[in-house]
Task: structure prediction
Amino acid sequence: MQKNGGGRRRRRRGGAQPMAEINITPFVDVMLVLLIIFMVAAPLLTVGVPVELPKTAAQALPAEQEEPLTVTITAEGGVQIMTTETQREDLVTKLRAVAAEREGDRVFLRADGAVPYSTVMEIMGALNAGGFSNIGLVTDIGGPTLDGSGN
Result:
């Protein structure tokens, strides 16, 4: 009976053989965790200003390549460009800066239904002075059609 030197194993003369299989279980686990994180986080990324829009029977405007600029007039009379609160005195200056960076001149105006018409027209004038001549008024669907067939 021959001992092999204190419990050591003998090595093969050809050296260690490379492992032929890749263990992908940790990779799949990480991908599933990332998938769950993105599925939970995606609905939270949509940010908006709560506004009670008036209802109308008009059809929606066609979609554009560039993300549309949105100006919102809140029920309290505050003005926001996208989600940034803006003073009325600074509105035209900020709109000119934004217009210089954008390709199109389309802007969507969202106004609470309780806002006076004169305030909406003032903001539309500021939009025009800021370089945006293509103004879309945002409303909710389902309003009266005024032809007797609506609600």
